[in-house]
Structures are given as C-alpha cells and as structure tokens.
Amino acid sequence: MNANASSSAANTVARDKYHVYRPLLDLIGHAEGTDRKRGYNETLAYGAFTGGDVNLCAMTLKEIDALQTKMLRHPANSFNSSALGRYQIVRTTLRAIRTSLSLSDNALFDADMQDRCACYLLGLRGIDKYLSGRLAEDTLIDNLAREWASLPMVSGKGAYANQNVAVRTEDVRQALAEVKKRHAAAQPKREIVVERKVEKPVVPVTVEAEIRKKTDQWSWITTIFGSGGAGLAALAGMDWQTVTAIGALALGGLLVALLLRRQIVCAIQDVRKIIEG
C-alpha cells in the first residue's frame, strides 16, 4: 500500500464514526433491500404506504413518528409494519431507542442518526459482548436474525414464519469477521516494560584477574629462584650437570605454574558461562 492509499484509508476511518460496525451495517442494508433503492430514505414497500418517496433524512424524529403512525393506519398495509430507513426500524423500536438515548424530538433522522440507532440495536443483541469474547458467534447470529428478519439464523432459515432471508449465514459470518478485525485494529497498543533484575554473578569477574595476578607472581618467583640457584651452583664450582638440573627444575616449575593458571582460568570461565546462561 502506497502512502496516498494509506492516508486515504486513515481519513475514511476518521470520518466514519461507525467504521468498526460498517461491514455489518452494509450487510443489513443489503439484506433489507433498502440499498437497492433509496437507502436511508427508503420506506416499507418502497413508498407504498407513504404516498410515494419521502426525504427521511430531512425529517425530525417527531415527524418520523407521525409518518410511521400514518403508515400503520394505511388500509393497504397488510404487513402491519412501520419499517423505514436504511435499517427498516419500526415505530415501537424507534420509540424505545429515543427513550433510552434521550434523543430530542427535533433531532434529524439523517444517515448518522440511523447508523447510531442501528448500532444501538447491535449492542442490545450482543455485538460488544461478542467482540470481547463473552458471547458465542452462533448466539449473536441468531440474535441478529430476531432483530432483522432478513438475516438468517445459524440454521440458514429466518427467525420468523413466512419470512424469506436475503443473505446466507456465511455472509453474516464474513461480515462479523471483518468487524472483529477492525475492532482489534482500533484497540490501543500497550507496551509493558518488564524490569529484569540482574543478579550478582556467582563467580565474580575479579576472581579470574586475581588468579592471573597470583600465578604471574609465582612465575616470577620461580624464575628468579631458578636462575639464582643455577647461578649460585655455577659460582660454587658445581659440575655442569648439576647446574643444568637446577635450571631445568626452575624451567619446569615455571611451565607448571603457567599451565595451572591457564586451566584454572578456563575452568572459571566455563562455570560462569553455565551459570549466567
């Protein structure tokens, strides 16, 4: 994704307050059949009980209530329904929403209000519990089918008799998967810093240095005494075999000291590596 596309996507999310729920809202608009015609301005039976097309988005909630009452009184309304708007909300449900959300009679029934009302109904049916892992997906699907008759239950059938569903159960699952994905992406990222206590090494580093120091001292002492002993032997008039033997002993002592130091230091380093991991 290039920078412009990424910026455009971010702006879309910022403008749409209901971005997380939009996949499900769009599915409902499709299933209810309103998106095929006038969407947010559509009424039951495409204006058959309202005297033709009406501009719902420009009407107040009080005016919408009066229009729904008119629809229910229409002699040809065999459905006995007042469903209108993109999400086909009936009068009884809309009145309950207005009371619960303390909506003003003068508030417009525009696209934003209709989205808000639909999301409120999604909440009542358990969408937020589902997103938090407290409600099974199958249970939510059946709940949604009871709110919108055009949506199928898990069985693939409608929740009400003589009601044909407009989409498949798999379509609902796909919409929910996208809702869940968007919800997860919108969550704040938290970084937890874990302080690690650094324990004091079991084998101090100074031990190795001290061993090197001590063995160096013994090397010097061995060298001095060995050389001195050989020199004194020569001055004392000892034969060359004795002088050579004393020198060889001194050299042997020096080599032993150096080898022991190397072995001890290597052993300490191995122990430290094992302990400190």
TrEMBL record:
<feature type="transmembrane region" description="Helical">
    <location>
        <begin position="242"/>
        <end position="260"/>
    </location>
</feature>
<protein>
    <submittedName>
        <fullName>Muramidase (Phage lysozyme)</fullName>
    </submittedName>
</protein>
<feature type="transmembrane region" description="Helical">
    <location>
        <begin position="218"/>
        <end position="236"/>
    </location>
</feature>
<dbReference type="InterPro" id="IPR023346">
    <property type="entry name" value="Lysozyme-like_dom_sf"/>
</dbReference>
<keyword id="KW-0472">Membrane</keyword>
<keyword id="KW-0812">Transmembrane</keyword>
<keyword id="KW-1133">Transmembrane helix</keyword>
